[in-house]
């Protein structure tokens, strides 16, 4: 199995939009109302929104490929691109998604390790993320990697407010 990491740019916008929508729906459709998911993906994955995020100097998107097939993606934020004010010595994992057909291959751990390397390259002490309070499998995965619950924040899907746990890992 050959795993490749590719930094996204503006030319990847259609692929990014498709994998973003597909993996979000795969992950959350069973636990949420269809109209909330639909409202969220229309906004969060609109091509203009993705272009704005891709052009932000402190946001980075990456594709992970397996044997040349797009398997998932990662979005990290630093400094003023973070969705919460967490300080200059932190890096946020805003999105980390693997297509269901590629799960259980170690790609989540691979993307996390890549994230830790990005954080260290940029001299960040902590890596943090928000995880939906009902996503027990993801929380367990993050805990195995050394993340601990450090707070909460609201996440809006359509007109519904949900609660995310903030989980943080200190690198040094």
Automatic annotation (TrEMBL):
<keyword id="KW-0808">Transferase</keyword>
<dbReference type="InterPro" id="IPR016181">
    <property type="entry name" value="Acyl_CoA_acyltransferase"/>
</dbReference>
<dbReference type="Pfam" id="PF00583">
    <property type="entry name" value="Acetyltransf_1"/>
</dbReference>
<dbReference type="InterPro" id="IPR000182">
    <property type="entry name" value="GNAT_dom"/>
</dbReference>
<feature type="domain" description="N-acetyltransferase">
    <location>
        <begin position="3"/>
        <end position="172"/>
    </location>
</feature>
<dbReference type="InterPro" id="IPR050680">
    <property type="entry name" value="YpeA/RimI_acetyltransf"/>
</dbReference>
<protein>
    <submittedName>
        <fullName>GNAT family N-acetyltransferase</fullName>
    </submittedName>
</protein>
<keyword id="KW-0012">Acyltransferase</keyword>
């Amino acid at each position: 199995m050959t795993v490749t990491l590719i930094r996204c740019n503006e030319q990847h916008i259609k692929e990014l939009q498709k994998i973003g929508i597909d993996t979000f729906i795969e992950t959350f459709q069973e636990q949420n109302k269809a109209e909330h998911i639909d409202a969220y993906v229309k906004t969060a994955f609109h091509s203009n929104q993705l272009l704005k995020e891709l052009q932000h100097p402190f946001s980075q998107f990456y594709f992970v490929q397996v044997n040349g097939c797009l398997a998932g993606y990662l979005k990290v934020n630093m400094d003023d691109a973070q969705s919460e004010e967490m300080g200059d010595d932190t890096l946020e994992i805003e999105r980390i998604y693997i297509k269901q057909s590629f799960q259980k291959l170690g790609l989540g751990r691979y993307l996390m390790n890549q994230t830790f390397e990005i954080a260290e390259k940029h001299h960040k002490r902590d890596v943090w993320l928000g995880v939906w309070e009902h996503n027990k499998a993801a929380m367990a995965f993050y805990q195995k990697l050394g993340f601990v619950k450090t707070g909460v924040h609201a996440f809006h899907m359509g007109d519904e407010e949900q609660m995310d746990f903030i989980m943080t890992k200190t690198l040094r």
